[in-house]
Design a protein that fits this description.
Layout (H helix, E strand, L loop, with lengths): L4 E7 L3 E8 L4 E8 L3 E2 L5 E3 L1 H17 L6 E8 L5 E3 L9 E2 L7 H8 L2 H10 L8 H11 L1 H4 L4 E3 L1 H10 L6 H8 E2 L4 E2 L1 H6 L20 E2 L2 H7 L6 E4 L3 H9 L8 E6 L3 E7 L14 E4 L6 E7 L3 H17 L6 H12 L8 E3 L19 E3 L7 H22 L6 E5 L6 H11 L2 E4 L5 H13 L6 H8 L12 H37 L1
Parallel strand pairs: 1-6, 6-13, 14-20, 20-21
Antiparallel strand pairs: 1-2, 2-3, 4-5, 5-8, 7-9, 10-11, 12-13, 14-15, 15-17, 16-17, 18-19
Length: about 525
């Protein structure tokens, strides 16, 4: 008889994925649906809540149909963080969801960031204010759409909405509740934080906090019929997707002083705080602090807005140049060729600041006007050096982020698209002067959610035991720091920071010029 499985639903920004795991973390089957959202005026990025549920149910239904002879133990849910998903008293969507990509609250948050309210909120949350967070989005709605908020009964995040559709229970998890509205010491909402943010009148919209490591709710009759599952199946509310990804990639287990860097479209750099006294605050009031799904532990993280998006820019630039010369190549071939060339390119040939996103930068500093820049080029500088400079810029950005949360951990566990590059691993190991290991778990977010369910069900006595079986055997060999590169990067890193700080006033003037041009 085939062993039983745990199901996990991971509703990301690009894909909604349903994954089945055996008890040791091995993936049995996956199903996915492309996520859909719409961009609108003023920086709006919205998603149809009903469609999101339909897509999630479709992926889960396909997954369940592929497991006809398997006993299903539980279903865990995680998803994209931040954003605002509003429902009315009857449980129906009150409006399209605002995603974390939505920028409409930016001006409100920019003012708030320089107020006493920001100081109070940061003292409790250890999380910097950003337009992507639900708090700023609710403030925007209160100012410009009060009639909408009058119809709202509950403010969810993405995974909370899906959990509600699966169970009928209105809830959120400790991570999103705490970094948005709470206090990391209490792992819960904090009235002083809510009041400082000007949201006391909307406090009733915040759902109860449910910790999936200790509690679950049963699958509703309607959801069971839709998905082909048994009514009452335990459904576990996971933590936010970035924490589940960190858990599935090795932030906890074995060497608990290890850190995790996710080099995907954005860059996320995380360390584990041993207790509340180990939380490190920074003068810029940036980053996130979230309760980790282990008693007493907290995850601190800094996120730079763009990681592999910078690599994409170079690849697209090279592909465009080839096309103009009549020598078109597949994009994947261009990426492979440039990645191979990095090994032979001169290290430190130029400095690159990887602020390629049109939204600027958010970690370890916040500046919506920040833009990418290349410094120190000379005539011999070529495409291979450009690609290497981008890799080095990403590594310096990681070092910059870790410095803001207490410094480099003793080892880095790497995941995301850029983790596949041996050159990137070598450069990152040298820039951080730490061993780098790749976490070989292609569905780390779903795996982390499933691990939370496994502990909740008692399949493991604690998360350390789960990590010993699910994570540690999947860590690859270490990439060791090259001592000559370590010395070079130690000299270059202070220059990297000094250069972007000196350029900040120029970014502001360029931003003003662009706005004037666009208004003309």
């Amino acid at each position: 008889m085939s062993p039983p499985v745990l199901l996990a639903l991971d509703a990301g920004t690009s894909l909604i994925k349903a994954v089945a795991f055996e008890g040791d973390g091995r993936i049995v089957h996956t199903a996915a649906r492309r996520n859909r959202y719409v961009e609108g005026p003023g920086g709006a990025v919205e998603q149809d809540m009903r469609q999101t549920w339909e897509d999630a149910a479709s992926a889960l239904g396909e997954l369940v149909a592929s497991l006809p002879e398997r006993k299903i133990l539980a279903l865990a849910v995680t998803g994209q963080g931040d954003g605002t998903w509003l429902i009315d008293e009857k449980g129906e969507p009150a409006a399209p969801a605002w995603l974390w990509l939505d920028a409409r609250a930016g001006p409100i948050v920019a003012v708030l960031r320089h107020s006493e309210a920001a100081r109070i909120a940061y003292a409790h949350t250890a999380t910097g204010l950003a337009a992507c967070q639900q708090s700023g989005q609710l403030l925007w709605l209160a100012r410009y759409r009060p009639e909408l908020l009058a119809r709202v009964a509950t403010a969810f995040h993405c995974k909370d909405w899906l959990y509600f559709r699966l169970t009928g229970v209105r809830a959120t998890d400790p991570s999103e509740a705490t970094f948005t509205y709470g206090d990391w010491r209490a792992r819960d909402y904090c009235d002083e934080t809510i009041s400082a943010l000007g949201l006391r009148a909307l406090r009733h919209l915040l759902p109860p906090v449910v910790d999936g490591t200790v509690a679950a709710h049963g699958l509703s009759p309607a959801a069971a019929a839709r998905l082909g599952l048994v009514e009452g199946l335990p459904v576990v509310l996971g933590y936010v997707d970035v924490l589940c990804s960190a858990l599935g990639s090795g932030l906890y287990g074995g060497n608990n002083a290890a850190g995790v860097s996710i080099l995907g479209s954005t860059g996320m750099h995380m360390r584990l705080a041993a207790d509340e006294d180990d939380v490190v605050l920074n003068a810029e009031r940036t980053g996130y602090c979230m309760p980790f799904p282990v008693p007493g532990r907290l995850a601190q993280m800094q996120s730079n807005m763009a990681a592999t998006l910078n690599i994409d820019w170079v690849v697209d630039l090279a592909a465009e140049a080839l096309a103009l010369a009549g020598a078109e190549r597949e994009r994947s071939a261009v990426l492979a060729a440039l990645d191979e060339a990095v090994v032979l390119a001169r290290p430190g040939a130029a400095l690159f600041h990887p602020f390629i996103s049109a939204a600027g930068e958010r970690g370890p500093f916040t500046d919506g006007a920040a833009r990418a820049q290349l410094l120190g080029i000379e005539r011999s500088f070529g495409f291979a050096e450009l690609m290497r400079a981008v890799y080095e810029g990403l590594a310096f950005a990681a070092r910059d982020c870790y410095a803001a949360i207490g410094g480099q951990p003793s080892e880095i566990r790497l995941c995301g698209g850029a983790a596949r590059s041996a050159s990137m691993r070598t450069i990152l190991a040298a820039a951080l002067d730490r061993e780098v290991r790749v976490a070989d778990q292609p569905e780390s977010g779903a795996a982390g959610a499933a691990m939370i369910a496994a502990v909740q069900l008692g399949l493991y006595p604690d998360m350390a035991a789960a990590a010993a079986e699910w994570v540690l055997p999947r860590l690859g060999p270490a990439t060791l720091p090259d001592r000559a590169l370590v010395s070079l990067y130690d000299r270059l890193f202070p220059v990297y920071r000094e250069a972007y700080r000196a350029t900040a006033p120029v970014w502001q003037r360029m931003h003003a010029t662009r706005e004037a041009r666009d208004a003309a």
